[in-house]
Design a protein that fits this description.
Strand content: 25-35%
Helix content: 25-40%
Largest sheet: 6 strands, antiparallel
Order of helices and strands: HHEHEEHHEEEHHEHEEEH
Radius of gyration: 35 Å
Number of helices: 9
């Protein structure tokens, strides 16, 4: 077997590494930080919401596929914290907004879908092809009745997905087509925006969920807190800690009794021969250092105990300080 590497392979390897590095640096996009509005959605809370809405995406994928009888997929694109005014400005001028309450979360939420995707869903559910050319207008009474069944299924999956954080009960309170008239919160109120992608066949649509941050925060904090410990578990932990302490008391360690360090030049050190005497930098009246693994924990004076050398502890670092 030949182990010779060709010149082309040697040339291609560094370029491949450079291309991978460029790809990593290109994907890392710097996001400006607004110091006047400090971020309140912690990483732990964001991770909990991400897990919940990842599950929501998988569940509603099944809902769309079964009700539309077409290949659908819903994926989570991101979770962000914004003001309600910023959220409204990010929406198109005409869209389908379902306003809902989610007791016990205070405030109102919004489930937003583009009108084209809603019309395509209605077309599929009524046996049509769900083509790209869909009307952009408010829904008729019959169309609203058709899509209400789909929305009920979506809110049911939202209830299930957020159950690990808060047991919500979504209740539809109305439908709006203009974001400017959807008064779900004040303009400066902080909201959590969940950005989803709804793909019907080969067409991708944006879908968003807006939740009030102030109403959601206490439930996120409670869900992130450690579970309460019972009296039995507390007793078991105390017993384990006591057993651990007792075992550590009998672990053998190497203890060194040493003088203070003495500095020598490399020339003096290199010229040392058997029988040479070195002048130590340790005063005769100073105690010796007692150390374990380089850490001094006591001081002692030299002595003997029978035929063996010994050290008498005279002080600890705390006593000297």
């Amino acid at each position: 077997m030949s182990t010779t590497t060709s010149a082309a392979e040697r040339t291609a390897a560094p370029s491949a590494v450079r291309s991978r590095r460029r790809g990593r640096s290109a994907s890392a996009v710097a996001v400006p930080y607004d110091f006047s509005r400090p971020l309140q959605l912690s990483r732990e809370h964001q991770r909990m919401l991400q897990l919940a809405f990842d599950g929501f995406g998988r569940q509603v994928t099944t809902v769309f596929t079964s009700m539309l009888r077409s290949v659908c997929q819903v994926t989570l694109r991101g979770i962000d914290q914004r003001t309600y005014a910023e959220y409204v400005q990010s929406l198109p001028s005409t869209t389908y907004l379902t306003l809902f309450s989610a007791d016990p979360v205070a405030g109102r939420g919004i489930l937003e879908m583009p009108l084209e995707s809603v019309m395509a869903c209605i077309d599929h559910m009524l046996g049509g092809p769900g083509s790209d050319r869909q009307p952009r207008r408010p829904l008729t009474e019959i169309e609203s009745g058709v899509v209400s069944g789909l929305m009920d299924r979506l809110f049911g999956e939202m209830r299930y997905s957020l159950g690990s954080i808060v047991p919500i009960e979504p209740t539809v309170e109305g439908v709006e087509y203009s974001p400017q008239f959807a008064q779900a919160a004040g303009a400066s109120d902080v909201v959590v925006v969940v950005d989803l992608e709804l793909r019907i066949d080969e067409r991708a649509h944006r879908m968003t969920v807006c939740l009030p941050f102030v109403g959601l925060l206490p439930h996120l904090t409670a869900a992130a807190a450690p579970a309460p410990v019972s009296g039995r578990e507390r007793a078991q932990r105390a017993q384990a800690a006591e057993l651990l302490r007792q075992q550590f008391e009998h672990v053998p360690v190497d203890v060194a009794v040493r003088c203070r360090p003495t500095t020598l030049t490399p020339q003096v050190f290199a010229d040392l021969r058997p029988g040479d005497v070195i002048r130590l930098g340790h005063p005769a009246s100073a105690p010796l250092d007692v150390a374990v693994d380089g850490t001094v924990f006591a001081h002692a004076t030299a002595g003997t105990q029978g035929p063996r050398l010994a050290a008498l502890i005279v002080a600890t670092p705390k006593e000297l300080s």
